[in-house]
Amino acid sequence: MSEGTLKMVRRLRVPDSGGGSSSIGIVADDWNSGGRCIGARIRGVNVGFLDEQVLVLVFRALDWDPRTLSSVARASRRLRAVAERVLWRDLCASRAPLMVAALTTTATGRVGGGWPALAKLLLFCCGGAMPGHFAPVSRFSKTSGRSFLPRRCGRDVLYVSDPCEHAAPGDDDDVGAYRGVFRGFVGSRTRARLVDGRTPLEPTVRCPYCGASVWSVAAPRGARRRLGAHESRLQYLVCVSGHLHGSCRLSRLSSSDGGAVGSDDDDDDA
Question: What pTM did the predictor assign?
Answer without folding.
Answer: 0.77
